[in-house]
Inverse folding.
């Protein structure tokens, strides 16, 4: 089915502004086509029940973005990973469907596939609270330079976002990102080098990895007397070790484990 509602146009405008800011108009035009195709594909799974009620019968959607080019995959992941879930929910609501409260939207990339994307659907039962995956609280970061809300932060979540505002919104006032480690806006010149959407630390396979989210002044790790850059858009990032100093522009965190 095709969506041509005002809600859909609002979603597309927000996505265009986001991708143009991150990657420029040239990349944005192509990404918009993929984004629109994904929303139409997902909306096409809405079902109409006997009494006219419209439902989306799945609780998990896995979107795989396909490109043989590694740089292109990194661009697509950067464009879709954070906001696609919310855009899918808004698009489903635009069809008048009831959206499952536990709907999870996961974004992956692949070097092989048919077409620019593939979507898989499934229904999953709620997991017991004890079974929810989360890192053991064995690591923390301590603020060494810059002014943040706290002096230290435990890395309790699978992903910890770092930036200069608690929440980021698009032109339509929709929240596009929430930062867990927040350097105060306008506090000093050091904080000014921390982008609002600067970096994140991800817990994966028992390791903590630092990834740059397209920051203006860069992200790097200082270890054993040498500086290691975390390339923008590289999902793998840099594996952190105890004692590493994480530089976000001129601000600095120390990783302890």
């Amino acid at each position: 089915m095709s969506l041509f509602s005002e809600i859909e146009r609002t979603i597309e405008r927000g996505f265009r502004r986001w991708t143009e800011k991150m990657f420029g108009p040239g990349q944005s035009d192509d990404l918009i086509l993929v984004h629109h195709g994904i929303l139409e594909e997902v909306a096409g799974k809405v079902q109409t029940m006997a009494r006219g009620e419209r439902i989306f019968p799945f609780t998990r959607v896995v979107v795989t973005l396909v490109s043989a080019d590694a740089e292109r995959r990194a661009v697509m992941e950067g464009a879709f990973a954070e906001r696609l879930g919310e855009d899918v929910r808004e698009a489903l609501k635009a069809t008048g469907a009831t959206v499952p409260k536990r709907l999870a939207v996961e974004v992956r990339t692949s070097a092989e596939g048919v077409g620019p994307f593939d979507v898989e659907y499934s229904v999953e039962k709620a997991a017991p609270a004890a079974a929810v995956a989360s890192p053991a609280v064995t690591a923390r970061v301590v603020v060494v330079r810059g002014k943040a809300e706290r002096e230290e932060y435990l890395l309790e979540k699978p992903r910890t976002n770092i930036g200069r505002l608690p929440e980021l919104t698009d032109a339509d006032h929709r929240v596009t990102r929430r930062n867990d480690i927040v350097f105060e806006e306008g506090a000093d010149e050091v904080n000014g080098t921390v982008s609002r959407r600067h970096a994140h630390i991800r817990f994966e396979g028992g390791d903590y990895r630092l990834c740059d989210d397209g920051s203006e002044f860069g992200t790097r790790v200082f270890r054993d007397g040498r500086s290691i850059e975390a390339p923008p858009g590289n999902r793998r990032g840099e594996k952190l070790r105890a004692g590493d100093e994480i530089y976000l522009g001129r601000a600095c965190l120390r990783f302890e484990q």
Q: What stands out?
A: The chain has two domains: 6-122, 133-256. The longest strand covers residues 60-66. Helices lie at 6-23, 25-43, 70-80, 84-94.
